[in-house]
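ok so heres the complex, two chains, lmk if somethin looks off
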Amino acid sequence: MIGKDNHQNGWLTGQTKSITFIVTKDCQLACKYCYLVGKNSKERMSGEVAKQAIDYIIAHESDFLEESVVWDFIGGEPFLEINLIDQICDYIKIELFKHNHHWFNSFRFVFTTNGINYNSDKVQSFIKKHKSHLNITITIDGTRRKHDLNRIWKTKEMEKGIMPKPEEERGSYDDVVKNIPLYLSQFPNASAKVTISSADISYISESVLHLYSLGIHEVNINCVFEDVWNEGDDLRFEEQLTELADAIIDGGYYKDYACSFFTEHMGKPLDCKLQNQNWCGAGRMLAVDAAGNFYPCTRFAQYSLREKKAWIIGNIHDGIDQNKLRPFLTLDRCTQSNQECIECEVAEGCAWCQGENYDAADTPTVYQRATAICKMHKARVRANNYYWNKLFRKLELEGIAKEEAEKHVKKSNPEIC
Amino acid sequence: MLQYLIILLDDTSYSYCHYSDIKTERRLIGLDTLKRGILFAMKENLNIQFVYPDYELPEAYREVIDSIDHTDIKPSAVSDGADVVVVNGCRSLEQMTVDIGVSYVLRTDKSDLFANYRLIMEVLTQATRVNVVLTDVETFTDDDFAGYKRVLGELSENVEKLYVGGKTPQLNILTDRMMLDRMNNCGAGDNNLTLAPNGKFYVCPAFYMENETNDVGDLDSGLHVKNKQLYKLDHAPLCRICDAWQCKRCVWLNRKTTLEVNTPGHEQCVAAHLERNASRELLSNIRKCATFLPEREEIKEITYLDPFEIKEQW
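and the predicted structre for the whole thing:
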């Protein structure tokens, strides 16, 4: 059992299925940019629902042929349900073994957490028990002032719809940052997830550098996809990224630290035949909630949707209705894009979230791409161009040819859902 | 491009397609609404198709309808002057007097079709055209598909004899594909829209019957079909690479089964491909006996019944 249990080397690099358990819709925080509009403390997954979901998935092995699986746990805040999660992980391991399932030697348990109860005995005990299979990402937005601007504690009044005055808001920075040393001691190569909204653009540069100073070498950062951007945000964003580019290059951080905002592969036009893939993995993933309903990804569960009905593709009793997955599995970039996006000269690297597309669409469809992020992408492209032009020139002056530059720059590995 | 306007004259207008006759209470379209609908069609240069209930309309309505060139879709009970007659179930064909020059729509389900399909052949010896509409195609199982394939094969043998004998009746599920050189789908939301008795426009009658709030405009404010590109073939990834050209590509069924108007469910695809393949066989057999449609190419042999199965090859 011990031999089989050591899967770090068993992880296969081919296609991976992502299966998400929405274990709770509750969270200690009430982040202002959170897309989960229907969070509540009532919808908690039961052990029985979780088991039935796992039983269904394992019993239908031929429908899940990907080489590897990521068992993803999401909330709300997943670690609020650490006892349940521990049971689920044990059950998964036992059942995969019992059924001699092809995933037995190739699975990971993945968490994105607000990090608040990371140091609790229960979470630490869980980490110790399953460490060889774990990937944990803590969301910390950067400096105290950036983090506390959005990531505030939930109050009882909020549940009644009464929002606190700005001076009454309580940020969560101190509650998270205290756990970073422990986190990094357990996962030295861990990354941080950062979210950018309109209000905190001015703190991007200082925040990325702050995370580097905490010992986090990889910062995965993205702008929210929702239509929240104001006039002039793109220019302020570009200015911040340019400032960050200077700091990373002048400070030599590029050798050992990465920021997902800067990538060589973006900002070029895309071909509708040769580069027509969908960005998002919705439909290739599977999510299950406390009611036992299946979704193409968590973003299609009702608590994630402002305007539209949940896109349910089945449930743990009746299984998955494959017809409801067909739109996702045949979706391509150009069919869902408007003409401006198709003809965009900097289209490469422009991301979208299928769930946000669906929620923002004029009709209930995943075939209408939301473009709220357009100006921000273009600003990012300009700053990204600046970054690489400056970096390549610096390396060139140091005697490193452009073709050799890759070896001297740490690359980011942003997770694309 | 919009070409046709379908006008439902009453809430109990007979279904001529996949959707069921859900509404049972009569609601005759207002005479003024009817006039405005006709005026709209004239100004937009649309051909009108009127869909009738099973009772005689008042004289004033008949006069207004006759004021414009149009097509009448009527149930068999009131079929005088109809261009298209709708019958429900194969058994209804037995007592029917067939009128040359009239097209017949046979609405049937799997149990009826599998048991009574021979009645279609009797009608085909006299009728010019029969359209078979499978009202429960979305419920077909593998066994049902096997049954449908068998029915198509037997119908095909009979159609072949008629063609070789010099008669050329049209049976949509077998002969349409032979005649076509491109997709010829229903076109709801693209080349046709529906005006309902409430004065509002709908993608097709099924959307109205399902929920009156599905409207895409009204006679006062005009049309506002949102995401109208999704009703076009080039925005349907599965269909645009498909050559089951006779498929109705029912956008209402699409939405019902896959939640998207541009994506057909597995069952609609398989049924259409069984028809396509039966047409291929029929065309080949007729050509063994006589020169037939020499300008048309052979229908290619394919190995799949659902284009979704080969999506990795697109």
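quick notes: The radius of gyration of chain B is 20 Å. thats all i got rn
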